[in-house]
Amino acid sequence: MRLFQSFVAFLGGLCTVAALHAQSATPPLVGVACNLLVSEDERHEGLNTLHAGKYAAAERAFQNAFDACPSQHSILLDLSRAELQAKTLSEAIRSAQRFLELEPNSIDGRIVLANAFFMAQRPQDALRESEAVLRQEPALAVALKLKGNVQYLTGDLDGALATFVTLLDKHPEDEEGPYMLGRIYYQEKRIDHATGQFQRVLKLNPKSYKAYDNLGLCYQSLGDTELATRYFLTAIKLVDKDHPEYDWAYANLASLLLDAGDAEKAFGFASKAATRNPNSARNFYIGGKALSKLGKHELSANWLERSASLDSKYPEPLYLLSRVYSQLGQKEKAKEALERFEVVKKDAPRERR
After folding, report:
1. pTM recorded for the entire structure
2. Is the predicted pLDDT of residue 349 greater than 80, yes or no?
């Protein structure tokens, strides 16, 4: 499910947008014990701590708010969002389901639950909930995005294509429609179509670093190294200070430089990518490959071992590791790495971008 892990980063703000579709407090019910003043104070504290990134504190505050006034059903959605941000995914699902038991017709509740299922890597459940929302509101953007992203990540590219075409048709000013169409076209090697969609994104948002990054990939596939480099560098300039979590453009440029024969510069960008995202097997593989080309075999072996440890189903670092160990004269380690490679390569090839 590595695709989910990488793509969730791209979807970073989706859960917040979904949950804010129509947030409102539920009026206290007659006959239900409710300390509304305490509940509202705790809820306010929960919202403040959630905004500050203190997710555990937000969870506690929202739970206290609900306990103080159980008739305030929508607090459960606040709690679910906090749990989702804290990565306590089973709890996030449970809180959203508790809300829907009390408010079975709530579109907001379905969206929050669908997003919780998505983050928990339960795509069919996420798809079911998003489709339930779309039966009520066929043009709701956040539900279309959830459905399309689930289809994309589960390999239903035709379905995802149709969903994002609908999103683009219904919401032409929403940049995610053309962005995802571009990703699908790129994956299908329809590069001209992909380029057109990413250019459309830039018309909507001239600071879309992801669109610049993907245009770099498009022009790289077309063999235009100069233009690809320019787009990668533009993406890097945009993310350098404002988006420290984004590593793709650095790794993509490093890979391009490796192909162009500039291993020294390639390692520099791969190193920056690895610093930004030390959990990316690809970043360490590219860095290890650059070090190998520079003749720094011991360092290369360290980077490649790190890559292999981060993703046990990634064959490329193991193959190169075998060669590096051979160059170091470590025959047993070379044999072991090659055997591991032979086992892993039997898996179906998977996209790394």
Report:
1. 0.82
2. no
